[in-house]
Write a structure and sequence with these properties.
Blueprint (H helix, E strand, L loop, with lengths): L7 H16 L18 H19 L4 H7 L9 H16 L8 E2 L6 E2 H23 L7 H9 L1 H4 L30 H8 L3
Length: 199
């Protein structure tokens, strides 16, 4: 069996492209539109994604979990949200390509993780938030099927050892659905993943 995080940088870039594709369609009047994340409008969601990418780079550079949380809501978009996000994806991928970065232990807020596990969490986050953005924009919601399959098949590996998880009965369910919820008849793989992720 292959390691679950083989090719994780490419998967991260694919998840970023899923978000970017929808981001490029945002009209000026849609930046304040609500998203499935109750506390965020579209601009807040895009800032969350952009700032998150920058915070992952900071973790690789020796940043702490406290720094990560302190900077989480700081504006990272300026007057060029699309450019800021796309640059953050490129820079994050470049940072994780550094020699040893994927094996580095990072002080992640939900618990210490290797770089590759952190990037797997980021890839999952990017994938789900691409759907959130599509829903907010009333745009096509289908995600890349291969990416959805990879995330769903490896949720236990992606969230192993973390304080919050979509596949652990011990989680607080602040972010995720309670495990064991019976699936609706005919549920698609994407719908199942979204349900597990609290959508």
């Amino acid at each position: 069996m292959s390691h679950p995080f083989v090719g994780i940088i490419d998967r991260y870039l694919l998840s970023g492209s899923e978000f970017t594709r929808r981001l490029r369609t945002v009209r000026p009047d849609q930046w304040t539109a609500p998203t499935p994340c109750a506390e965020w409008d579209v601009r807040h969601l895009v800032n969350h994604m952009t700032r998150g990418n920058l915070n992952y780079i900071a973790l690789l550079d020796g940043g702490s979990a406290a720094d990560f949380l302190r900077l989480r809501d700081e504006d990272a978009l300026g007057d060029d949200p699309v450019g800021a996000y796309t640059r953050s994806v490129r820079d994050c991928a470049a940072a994780f390509r550094r020699p040893g970065a994927l094996q580095q232990i990072l002080d992640y807020p939900l618990g210490p993780v290797t770089g590759e596990q952190a990037l797997a969490v980021r890839t999952t986050d990017s994938t789900i938030h691409a759907w959130d953005l599509a829903r907010a924009l009333d745009a096509p919601e289908e995600l890349d099927p291969g990416l959805v399959a990879w995330v769903e098949e490896h949720l236990a590996d992606i969230y192993a050892g973390l304080a919050e998880s979509p596949v652990s009965a011990d989680t607080t369910h602040r972010f995720f659905a309670a495990p064991g919820t019976p699936p609706p008849d005919g549920e698609t793989r994407q719908a199942r993943l979204l349900r597990l992720m609290g959508r």
